[in-house]
Structure formats: C-alpha cells, structure tokens
C-alpha cells in the first residue's frame, strides 16, 4: 500500500483559497520559472521546484478530493489533473447524470470508504488527499501519513483553511524536506503517530 499525502499550495497564513474559492497568487509559482512541469508547456517552474515536484507528481496514483472541489472544477472536464490515473470524490451524491461516463472518477460516501477505494486503485503508488475540509477530516481520522505544502509568499487574511475545520491538535514530525523554489517554499512533514 502506498503512502497517503495531504497536499496543496497554501498562503503563509494557512489558506488554500480566498472566501470566494479563488487561489489568487497561490499558484503564481507554477508560472515563475522556465522549466515545463507538464506536457502542456504552460506550467513552468524553477529547476529546484521541478526537481522536487515532478517525482512526487509521477508517483501519485489517485487523488482524493471533496465534492466542492469537483463542482468548482467541473471535475477537470473528466480528465484527472497532472496525469493522475483516478480521482476519488468524497460525496453523498453520486456521479452527475450524463457527466463524462467513462471518466476515471469514483464517487464515494465517507472518508474511510473513499480511502479504501483510493488505496485499492493506487496499489503501491501515492494516494494524494487534497487539503481543505476532506484533507482535514482524513488527518483527524489518522488516515494521512505525510503533509506536503507549497507555501506561497502571500497573506490572504481569510478564506478556505489548509486543514479545513480541524479543531484538535495534531503533531507532525520535523520537516523531512524544506526546499526554496522561485516564489515558493516546499515543505514536507511526516505525520507523528
């Protein structure tokens, strides 16, 4: 079974989007370099960021996201982001009627059932959990092995929190990696068990 990683870009004050669900400057680092990160050539990062992010992206087998993110993105029009094989959507509602019936998206009710499905699909590859409410619930339930965050040099002041509505203390180990890219600080923390 692969590692479970909670991940997102985040502001210095801990937000993954503003109150209107817009990331604002949090993704500027994805356009701040000259090394293409994907086949589109649109996303370009510094060499340092590429060396850190590309192996991670390549190791992801499944991403878990909440229904809110799915609805905001229209499920990336049926194509999982960043070349990922499958997306598991935590939702009480199933696949929208008529929405890309062949898309590798799985609609699962409940975080434990969603994680079980994601791990089955991922095998020994990484299960990525989108930060926010679903990620915070999975962290609180002890389902996350590692927290990765790309900290952008921005203060949003309010909005959607990286850890969602988690209201209990959870300890992380010392950072396993701290890497400075262009307009971004990459951090990786193992979750303390």
List key phrases describing it.
single chain; 193 residues; alpha/beta; Dihydrofolate Reductase, subunit A; two-stranded antiparallel ribbon; 4 helices; globular; 5-amino-6-(5-phosphoribosylamino)uracil reductase activity; DHFR-like_dom_sf; RibDG_C; Dihydrofolate reductase
Describe the overall structure.
The chain has 193 residues and is of the alpha/beta class. The chain has a single domain, classed as Dihydrofolate Reductase, subunit A. It contains 4 helices and 12 strands; from the N terminus they run ββββαβαββαβαββββ. The protein has helices spanning 47-59, 67-73, 111-122, 133-140, and strands at 4-11, 15-17, 35-36, 44-45, 60-66, 86-90, 105-108, 126-130, 146-152, 160-161, 177-181, 184-190. The protein has an 8-stranded mixed beta sheet, sandwiched between helices. Strands 2-10 form a two-stranded antiparallel sheet. The longest helix has 13 residues, at 47-59. The radius of gyration is 16 Å and the shape is globular. The two termini are 17 Å apart. The mean pLDDT is 95.
* CATH homologous superfamily (4th level) name: Dihydrofolate Reductase, subunit A
Oligomer state equals: single chain
Number of helices: 4
Rg over alpha carbons: 16 Å
Q: What overall form do the CA principal axes indicate?
A: globular
Total tally of structural domains: 1
Backbone structural class: alpha/beta
Element order, helices and strands? Answer: EEEEHEHEEHEHEEEE
In the CATH hierarchy, what is the architecture at level 2? 3-Layer(aba) Sandwich
Helicity range? 10-25%
Characterize the main sheet.
8 strands, mixed
Straight-line distance between termini: 17 Å
Low-confidence stretches: none
What is the CATH fold-level name? Dihydrofolate Reductase, subunit A
InterPro entries: DHFR-like_dom_sf, RibDG_C
Protein name: Dihydrofolate reductase
GO molecular function, one term: 5-amino-6-(5-phosphoribosylamino)uracil reductase activity
Domain Bacterial bifunctional deaminase-reductase C-terminal: 111-170
